[in-house]
Amino acid sequence: MKILLLANTVFELLVGILMLAVPTVFFPDLAHTGDQLALSQALVRGFAFAALAMAGLSGFMVIRPLTPEVKFSGLGALAIFHLGLSITQLLNVINGLVPVPVLIIHAIFAVFFLGTFIWNWR
Questions:
Q1: Residue 9: which pLDDT band, with cuts at 50, 70 and 90?
Q2: What is residue 15's three-state secondary structure?
Q3: pLDDT number for residue 33
Q4: Residue 49 pLDDT grade (very low, low, confident, very high; cuts 50, 70, 90)
Q5: pTM > 0.85: yes or no
Q6: Which of 31, 64, 81, 98 is the most exposed place for a label (fewest CB within 10 A)?
Q7: What is the overall mean pLDDT for the chain?
Q8: CA atoms of 57 and 27, how far apart (whole Å)
Q9: Which residues have C-beta within 8 Å of that of residue 83, sequence separation ≥ 6?
């Protein structure tokens, strides 16, 4: 479980930092002028801080002792986050908005976090 949490921490930390520093890496079609630029930047910042929040959650779970309550809450939150993003990215892949690897990465995390959550819930 610690390896999964550490992998999530590193992944989400990199994604969050890159989204803040170079948003066009993830969103090459961002609007470049006027109100659309402001809206695009606001949305990307929100996505970036969501990724950083999940990095923080999994990072704290790596460095602190895990009580059953922390496992339940933390693994549940991470499972819901990645499951929700998997569903969203599936729709985005179908509509040609994101590449398939984005879906695969979140789906893998979703399966592992959901499995770990269920395993620790019993």
A1: very high
A2: helix
A3: 60
A4: very high
A5: yes
A6: 64
A7: 90
A8: 25
A9: 110, 113, 114
With CA atoms as reference, report the closest residue to 13 among 72, 46, 54: 54
**Residues 90 and 103 sit within 8 Å (Cβ to Cβ):** yes
CA distance 10 to 47: 16
CA distances from 118 to 76, 82, 114 (A): 9, 15, 6
CB 76 within 8 A of CB 117: yes
Q: How far apart are CA 1 and CA 17, in angstroms?
A: 24
Is it the case that residue 108 has pLDDT exceeding 80? yes
Specify the 3-state DSSP secondary structure of 98. Answer: coil
Closest by alpha carbon to 44, among 62, 58, 30? 30
- Among candidate residues 11, 15, 117, 119, the one with its CA nearest the CA of residue 74: 117
Q: Output the pLDDT for position 42.
A: 82
- Residue 25: band (very low, low, confident or very high) from pLDDT cuts 50, 70, 90: confident
Cα separation of 26 and 29, whole Å?
A: 9
